């Protein structure tokens, strides 16, 4: 049976997004997503926001991240299962939908696993562009897993980072990162400890996967003027910073109600001072105030960023003629007649013999 | 680029589900879903439950409905936009996902527009099987829109309802229902008012779409022994019952925290007595206690029902060999190497010339 869908849902598969990124180049995508993020963060007050809805289990977490403005509703499904790599599965897998607020019709279904890596890196770079010292050229990159190359390239292309100091407890992850960035202009320095990688770095990015209350960055590693981009502490019970690091820094967050639960600041008292990044971007709050200040972006990933990323991928796919329609919503000639979809074929041709017993009630 | 996905997500499109229901027959599907619902409601305490997350706008609502047990996580996306029919779109559109809790991998993506109509009707019949008088043979059906035929058939096949008394303010909706049920053994009586339809009915089903504080059923319409199946009052500001109807009945609900917000009981004080249906099904609470009692199922639709419906459709599709794989999650040979998906082709062949500047830090 052929159903012509009136609700046109466009599907961007994992293959399509990989093709899209390969066609445009990862630098273009990182810059494009950062521009969309910036534009949407400046519209912060136009969004209906909530902390994401998390379902925790022994092995990980599954989350739904909805957000909307007056035109579009977006949500992302995303998991976080640190032990997945032992099963050959990614730690983080995601997909999402963009829908129209006025009708509820889903207009886009997209993979968001690759896209999340790009949007997280673009967001990190956007925050650092505001918070790090402009002359930053060296970045420590702690955790060299699935998201690390994207972080390295975002800071290279958007901030002018020239040298990356790598460290991961898994040396094969470090080797993989080096292999993957072989074609770039980045200088890659392999380090033997977090401390060694962090020493002298202008920016420190932590993007580790273990779901533990880790203390990867210690207070005595802080150096004047350093910017810390904390990406991996993003879930209750999953942190990367010693509390002293937070106490020694000016802390910036995406959406305070969510970050208080999920970010590294989960370790701190509820009145620990944080500044929402959108206020800095909008000129409503100070970012970095001097060259010796330590700044820290306690990134957890906010639904607005997926809204931006979905819009970027939709627009880019349209421009490139990529994607395909998917029959997610049935088409019915009469929207009050859903049953028509499954009415047995003979009954479609009405005849007197098939009329039901029918009486006008007296 | 061919990516062989290790995360096998199966897709059941709107066309596939229509084909599935046509192949099995709607009666079989209603019975099957009711059996799955019953089995899952008996496992009530095994589920991690929450009220659905609603995003309200001027024209309607978009909701996410997550739930999980130790093995599976399910969620549904569903909207409710009463004015959609004027645009040729369904009032309610839905899709959903079934994922594995231990890895977060989405194993099924399915349309849920048609499926929601089936699961809602099956749920109504399951509740009525427990709450209505066993000898019930006549049902009033107020609201003859997209879901009405499914309600009629569920009560016909699962409860033995023989006569349906129809009323809708839109006479073309009534005519459509009559046309669609022409092939069944149901006696259909067209009525000119709610009052006329309800008079003498054993069961009263309300499934209207207007988002208003309606008072479709009035206290003086109640008759001893009547069971009311209230389906349409399912959103803040959207009700169908006069408060006196609730006061005159024993009220049963799906999940109390959600129904207090969304159901017809939103009109009542917070201590208005309600009984969760699972307790009746499990023998932990009384359902109907005598033949003169008025019972009311204040149905709003709960995530558990979509979990059951997704499982039923998954199992039935497997048995019939329906559905197709969809590339929702990228496959990567090494799960820590997401970047491999977009590494420019030349860099895949490593050569000495492409090695980056690399130094062991001193």
Any overview of this molecule?
Chain A has about 350 residues and is an alpha/beta fold. Chain A contains 11 helices and 18 strands. Chain A has helices at about 15-25, 25-40, 115-130, 150-160, 170-180, 195-200, 245, 255-260, 275-280, 305-320, 345-350, and strands at about 10, 55, 60-70, 70-80, 95-100, 105-110, 140, 165, 185-190, 205, 215, 225-230, 240, 250-255, 275, 295-300, 325, 360. In chain A, strands 9-8-7-10-12-16-14-15 form an 8-stranded parallel beta sheet. In chain A, helix 2 (about 25-40) crosses helix 4 and helix 3 (about 115-130) packs across helix 10. The longest helix of chain A has 19 residues, at about 115-130. The first copy, chain A, is globular, with a radius of gyration of 24 Å. Chain A starts with 8 loop residues before the first strand and ends with a strand. The model of chain A is unreliable at about 1-5 and about 345-360 (pLDDT under 50).
In spatial order, strands of the major sheet of chain A run 9-8-7-10-12-16-14-15
Please bin the fraction of helical residues of chain A: 25-40%
- Average per-residue pLDDT of chain A, rounded, comes to 92
Q: Quick one: biggest sheet of chain A?
A: 8 strands, parallel
**Percentage of residues in strands of chain A:** 15-25%
Q: Identify the quaternary structure here.
A: homodimer
Largest Cβ-defined interface: A-B, 111 and 111 residues
**Ends apart, CA distance between termini of chain A:** 42 Å
- Shape, principal axes of CA atoms of chain A: globular
**Strand tally of chain A:** 18
Are there runs of chain A of 5+ residues with pLDDT below 50, and where? 1-5, 346-362
């Amino acid at each position: 049976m052929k159903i012509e869908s009136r609700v046109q849902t466009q599907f961007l598969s994992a293959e399509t997004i990989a093709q899209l990124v390969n066609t445009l180049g990862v630098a273009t995508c990182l810059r494009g997503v950062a521009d969309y993020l910036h534009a949407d963060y400046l519209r912060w007050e136009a969004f209906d926001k909530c902390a994401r809805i998390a379902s925790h289990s022994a092995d990980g977490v599954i989350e739904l991240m909805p957000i909307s403005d007056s035109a579009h509703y977006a949500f992302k499904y995303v998991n976080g299962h640190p032990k997945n790599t032992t099963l050959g599965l990614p730690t983080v897998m995601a997909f999402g939908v963009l829908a129209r607020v006025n009708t509820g019709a889903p207009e886009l279904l997209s993979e968001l696993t690759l896209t999340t890596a790009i949007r997280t890196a673009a967001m990190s770079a956007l925050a650092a562009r505001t918070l790090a010292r402009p002359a930053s050229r060296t970045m420590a990159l702690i955790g060299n897993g699935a998201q690390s190359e994207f972080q390295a390239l975002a800071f290279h292309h958007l901030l002018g980072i020239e040298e990356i100091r790598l460290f991961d407890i898994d040396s094969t992850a470090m080797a993989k990162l080096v292999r993957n960035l072989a074609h770039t202009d980045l200088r890659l320095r392999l380090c033997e400890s977090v401390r060694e990688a962090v020493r002298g770095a202008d920016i420190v990015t932590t993007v580790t996967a273990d779901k533990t209350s880790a203390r990867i960055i210690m207070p005595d590693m802080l150096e004047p003027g350093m910017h810390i981009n904390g990406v991996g502490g993003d879930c209750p019970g999953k942190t990367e910073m010693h509390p002293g690091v937070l106490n020694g820094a000016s802390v910036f967050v995406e959406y305070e109600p969510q970050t208080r639960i999920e970010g590294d600041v989960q370790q701190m008292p509820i009145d620990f001072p944080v500044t929402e990044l959108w206020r800095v971007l909008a000129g409503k709050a100070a970012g970095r105030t001097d060259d010796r200040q330590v700044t820290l972006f306690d990134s957890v990933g906010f639904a607005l960023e997926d809204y931006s990323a979905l819009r970027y991928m939709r627009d880019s796919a349209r421009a490139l003629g990529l994607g395909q329609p998917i029959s997610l919503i049935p088409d019915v000639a009469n929207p009050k007649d859903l049953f028509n979809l499954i009415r047995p074929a003979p009954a479609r041709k009405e005849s007197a013999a098939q009329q039901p017993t029918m009486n006008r009630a007296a």
